[in-house]
Design brief:
The complex is a heterodimer. Chain A has one domain: Orthogonal Bundle (Cytochrome Bc1 Complex, Chain D, domain 2), CATH 1.10.760.10. In chain A, a hairpin with a 2-residue loop joins strand 1 and strand 2. Chain A has seven helices and two strands. Chain B has a single domain, classed as Glutaredoxin (3-Layer(aba) Sandwich). Chain B is 35% helix and 25% strand. The longest helix of chain B has 22 residues. Chain B is globular. The chains are: A mainly alpha, B alpha+beta.
């Protein structure tokens, strides 16, 4: 009885939004938790950044143009690279996060690239693995 | 009849007293060690006075590589903290919060800020200067202090009552507490607030006007 009921609910949800979209939403929610833990200190609760110490995450054009590099930034950090974000240059260091698994990075990226006014779709762990191969 | 009136009067008087008490904000506590001493008045009589713990004389370099001593904070209330520029854990939150207070009191010369670096190896005055500019607070109002490990760490633990330590096993080498310490014009500690917690920072924002009002009496 319970099984058939939950199956019905599942079918209802499933018919409303396809599996891909559902997966992206799960990634987004998990990504938000990871963001609070690993990124929010510097980049702020609304991705607004902190002065010129930490750039905002609201530059959609930057995110789009550097889509293949974002996983590298998160995993290995940034040093000796000047990035131009919202027409402002940011130098200095971003710490690395060597402990993050590919799926964590994928979830973080889904969150970051689909919030603060950004809308840039899905990241898969496979894509992250591929991006990480060509970091340096 | 008359007892009823006097009862009513008593009630209204106590309500008045009570409401007037609520209006005047409670003075902030004075923290740290204290000691009672006997002082001699001019007429020869003696009195008991209380000596409170104060921030002792210090001498550091600031972000402009200029000497920074207690003199800079004479007749000011200030908020002190301990941090280091490469810290990515609690420092950004502390300074994000401190900056909102800084912006609020930009025009008030009585309020100052003092951040001590605990990274005596890397955070030279030029690094502090860079940090101040990037945070958007460079100027005399927010001083960044650079000093020897011994002088800064002793001041932190003995005088500002903030725990700091060098720990080579920690990811970022230094471990410290995120207190924002409120100091009055007599160099006494009047409050300590966790600079990473929104509610405590809000309390600090409430307490600053109370302290400023007290000093004007």
């Amino acid at each position: 009885m319970f099984f058939s009921f939950s199956l019905m609910i599942a079918v209802m949800i499933y018919s409303c939004q396809d599996a891909e979209q559902l997966k992206q939403q799960v990634y987004y929610t998990n990504g938000r938790d990871l963001y609070i833990k690993h990124c929010q200190n510097c980049h702020g609760i609304n991705g607004e950044g902190l002065g010129q110490l930490a750039p905002p995450l609201t530059d959609s054009t930057f995110l789009k143009e550097h889509r293949g590099k974002l996983a590298c930034y998160i995993k290995y950090g940034i040093s000796d690279t000047v990035l131009t974000i919202h027409n402002q240059s940011y130098e200095g260091k971003m710490p690395d996060n060597p402990g993050l698994a590919n799926i964590d990075i994928a979830q973080l990226l889904v969150y970051i690239t689909n919030t603060y006014g950004n809308k840039q779709g899905m990241f898969t762990p496979e894509q992250v693995a591929k991006d990480l191969e060509s970091c340096k | 009849m008359s007892t009823r009136y006097s009862f009513l009067a008593l009630v209204s008087v106590s309500i008045l007293l009570f409401s007037s008490c609520q209006k005047a904000s409670k003075p902030l506590p004075i923290y740290g060690q204290r000691e009672a001493i006997q002082v001699k008045n001019n007429d020869g009589s003696t009195e008991i006075d209380t000596i409170y713990q104060t921030i002792p004389a210090f001498s550091f370099l600031n972000q402009d590589s200029l000497p920074l001593t207690n003199k800079a904070f004479e007749n000011k209330i200030y908020i002190a903290d301990f941090f280091f520029t490469s810290c990515s854990t609690i420092c950004p939150i502390m300074h994000r919060n401190m900056k909102t207070i800084f912006d609020e009191y930009k025009e008030n010369p009585e309020v100052m800020f003092l951040s001590h670096t605990i990274d005596f190896k890397y955070d030279t005055p030029s690094k502090l200067k860079k940090y101040a500019i990037k945070l958007g607070v460079d100027g005399p109002k927010w001083q960044f202090a650079y000093g020897s490990k011994d002088s800064i760490y002793t001041l932190a633990e003995k005088n500002y009552l903030v725990a700091v330590m060098e720990d080579s096993t920690a990811k970022e080498t230094y471990v410290h507490q995120g207190w924002l310490v409120l100091i009055d014009k007599h160099k006494r500690i009047r409050g300590a607030y966790d600079g990473t917690k929104t509610d405590q920072v809000a309390k600090l924002k409430q307490d600053i006007p109370v302290l400023l009002a007290e000093e004007q009496k």
